């Protein structure tokens, strides 16, 4: 036995006096990590203490109804946000909810007018402190574009969650109610602050920059090919955030006047590619062209020549890729410095298009500044 094995009485008392507050602190604050469930509102939270969540409904399959006579056919955007909320048991225990209908469309019809209305309503709700978080119900086809647009134009760090579903409300095993429940759960949680606009579907939480639809009809369709989900939410474990979202903006750009973004075309590259789609885009007044290139944002010689000519006319040319994952890198097989092109890095063509629109609307023309805008921080 060493002489330090038995502490003198004075030291024991000091250790005890130190240990009591430490243990009390540990008990009060455990579990305190990112996976703590205690922060989530639950069935015992008094209504007055529940967070205020504004639900903005836009339509989509989550609000869709099937025609019982038809196999597989359904119409999106048939039921209101209010009706949707009422169909989810327990939602009122998570938050004080207020629903507003912004549009009732399938998201294949999503447009600048609805985007601007959404952005203005969210900003107003936060500026006037009417809500602690926002949930947007949306069709899944263009959900990722709306998420990315809003992330770039809505200021602040209160949670903005976008949600949809793959099966209509009337389907057997509809995924909408569960997705909406989880979206409200995430929006109501203070740990969701400062993560930009986030998508919640099928138990996954994903960032606006990375999330993309990868399957036409399956409920397991949204993924983040370059970096994976930022967290998970489910009935067993509650909310778990694993990491921060890539390139969180919230926000960099002002909404341009006039409720319309500048025209930017996406040109899809393929074997035997000629310059016609590029010439068409220019003749229809495109202020920017995003190349959905092959591989690392490549395209054929005739298409490349046409893009170089476009850039010389002051049209913003962004090289993106039709490949689902990876980055498009400057000056590899294409001399971007010489041609005056910008590369999209990890942004897919549909999101690169949104960013190009915002940059053009903001009057940014300096090449280095344009390129910097496409570069994400992790
Ligand atoms: N699953 C869906 O939400 C797709 C339905 C519709 N095309 C939309 O995007 O709104």
Write out key terms for the chains shown.
binds glutamine; Rossmann fold; alpha/beta; eight-stranded mixed sheet; four-stranded parallel sheet; 30% helix; AsnASE_II; 2 domains; globular; 378 residues
Q: How many structural domains can be distinguished in the coordinates?
A: 2
CATH-wise, what's the superfamily of the largest domain? L-asparaginase, N-terminal domain
CATH architecture of the largest domain: 3-Layer(aba) Sandwich
Number of helical regions: 11
Helix-strand makeup class: alpha/beta
Biggest sheet features: 8 strands, mixed
CATH topology of the largest domain: Rossmann fold
Indicate the proportion of strand residues: 15-25%
Name every ligand kind in the structure.
Answer: glutamine
The count of β-strands is 16
What string gives the helices and strands in order? HEEEHHEHEHEHEEEEEEEHEHEHEHH
